[in-house]
């Protein structure tokens, strides 16, 4: 009895006809991060659940609704990572990376997991890229992190995006601002969604991040954080804007950016593509000066960003950008006759040792079928090896686009193709 298995809801397969696009985007991100002297860090896909509960905040959607949690055989509670910052900071603390002089500049890529309502550009397993700069509170670092993101997006060729920034202040500023929001939203409490009624007393700033239409309408006239910044926060934000101007990063100030996680302070920012509909953020980030200490390390400031590769791919398709090049073998081997077919592996091995990509299909034996296959995969060359050529120690190299061919000694084959 056969069974049919299907993908879990909210996941997808990256198939060969698009995998080369993913490889291209990931490659551009890694090269851009390295251009800014960031080094790669790789963390496990599951961590202790408490790491995310402590860092993200008990009232966050991640903790309350979205984490995939499980208990192992020893009764320990783990979670598939829903975001990348907390694991990186955990690794930073556990491996004492603070002992190295200067700012630790780290980047990562990999799958994340959230039990969320699947929709275009949002999945339950999604692939994230991100950077973290730990060890400096200087406004220059804020601007450089944003400039890295901006450079990455530019290198992909995207033009239909917008950079928005805000300051979410420090703990004292946030306390005053939360009180102002409570006073503003309380008269509207009965009109708010169930989640926002809970947020009103536990995390008022999250009210500004709600996607429910009525909540957004009520929040239009809410107080803005910028009016509550103290002198230090204002000065920091102004310097960030000055450095962004020097980096030639265009931006607008959006005072409604609050970010969904508890650990953010000072600078917050988002990169938006308004052609993607409601889920239009292609990445976001901010400063988290209390997170390292919260996770058990020293009191060190940090800042970073993260985004999903899925939204980038959608954005590139929206702008008709072809990301990367599909892998096409340089040579297709055509073997005619039993002797040639018996010796074909040695020719293929010779070419591959010289980093020349080769395709050969032993199931196809006729000249017509093999030439048709070479045309189908768009290989530039067909290498024809027959019994007669084998006896003479030569092969026929056929140019499939120009429709010309030459005979080459087998010993000269690799150097000729490479040249």
In brief:
This protein has helices at residues 16-35, 49-56, 61-66, 85-94, 139-155, 171-185, 194-202, 213-219, 231-246, 291-294, 309-318, 338-353, 367-376, 387-392, 413-418; strands at residues 39-40, 46-48, 69-71, 77-80, 104-113, 125-134, 162-167, 252-253, 265-272, 281-287, 302-308, 331-336, 358-359, 381-386, 394-399, 404-409.
What can you see in these coordinates?
With 419 residues, the chain is α+β, with helices and mostly antiparallel strands. It has two domains: 16-170 and 230-318, Bira Bifunctional Protein, Domain 2 (BirA Bifunctional Protein, domain 2), CATH 3.30.930; 331-418, Anticodon-binding domain (Rossmann fold), CATH 3.40.50.800. Helices cover 38% and strands 21% of the residues. The chain has 15 helices and 16 strands. The strands form three sheets. Strands 1-5-6-11-10-9-7-8 form an eight-stranded mixed beta sheet, sandwiched between helices. Strands 13-12-14-15-16 form a five-stranded mixed beta sheet, sandwiched between helices. Strand 15 and strand 16 form a beta hairpin. Helix 1 runs antiparallel to helix 5 (139-155) and helix 5 runs parallel beside helix 9. It is elongated, with a radius of gyration of 28 Å. The model has no long low-confidence stretch (mean pLDDT 89).
């Amino acid at each position: 009895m056969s069974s049919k298995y299907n993908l879990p809801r909210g996941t997808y397969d990256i198939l060969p006809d698009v995998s080369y696009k993913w490889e291209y985007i990931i490659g551009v991100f890694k090269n851009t991060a390295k251009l800014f002297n960031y080094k790669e860090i790789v963390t496990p896909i599951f961590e202790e659940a408490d790491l995310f509960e402590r860092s993200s905040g008990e009232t966050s959607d991640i903790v309350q609704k979205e984490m995939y949690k499980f208990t192992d055989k020893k009764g320990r509670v783990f979670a598939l990572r829903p975001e990348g910052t907390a694991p990186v900071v955990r690794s930073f603390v556990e491996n004492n990376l603070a002992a190295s002089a200067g700012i630790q500049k780290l980047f990562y890529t990999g799958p994340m997991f959230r039990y969320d309502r699947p929709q275009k550009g949002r999945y339950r397993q999604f692939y994230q890229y991100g950077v973290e700069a730990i060890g400096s509170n200087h406004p220059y670092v804020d601007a450089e992190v944003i400039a890295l993101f901006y450079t990455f997006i530019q290198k992909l060729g995207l033009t239909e995006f917008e950079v928005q920034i805000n300051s979410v202040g420090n703990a004292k500023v946030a306390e005053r601002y939360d009180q102002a929001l409570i006073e503003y939203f309380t008269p509207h409490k009965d009109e708010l969604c169930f989640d926002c009624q809970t947020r009103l007393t536990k995390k008022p700033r999250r009210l500004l991040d709600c996607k429910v239409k009525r909540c957004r309408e009520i929040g239009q006239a809410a107080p803005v954080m910028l009016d509550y910044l103290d002198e230090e926060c204002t000065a920091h934000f102004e310097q960030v804007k000055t450095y962004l101007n020097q980096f030639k990063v265009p931006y607008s100030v959006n005072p409604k950016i609050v970010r969904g996680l508890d650990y953010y302070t000072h600078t917050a920012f988002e990169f938006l593509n308004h052609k993607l509909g409601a889920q239009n953020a292609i990445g976001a980030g901010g400063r988290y000066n209390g997170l390292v200490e919260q996770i058990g390390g020293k009191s060190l400031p940090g800042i970073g960003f993260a985004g999903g590769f899925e939204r980038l791919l959608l954005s590139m398709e929206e702008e008709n950008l072809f990301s990367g090049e599909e892998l096409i073998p340089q040579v297709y081997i055509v073997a005619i006759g039993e002797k040639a077919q018996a010796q074909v592996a040695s020719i293929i091995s010779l070419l591959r040792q010289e980093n020349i990509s080769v395709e050969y299909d032993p199931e196809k034996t006729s000249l017509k079928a093999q030439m048709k296959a070479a045309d189908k995969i768009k290989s530039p060359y067909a290498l024809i090896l027959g019994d007669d050529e084998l006896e003479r120690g030569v092969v026929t190299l056929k140019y499939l686009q120009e429709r010309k061919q030459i005979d080459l000694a087998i010993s000269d084959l690799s150097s000729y193709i490479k040249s």
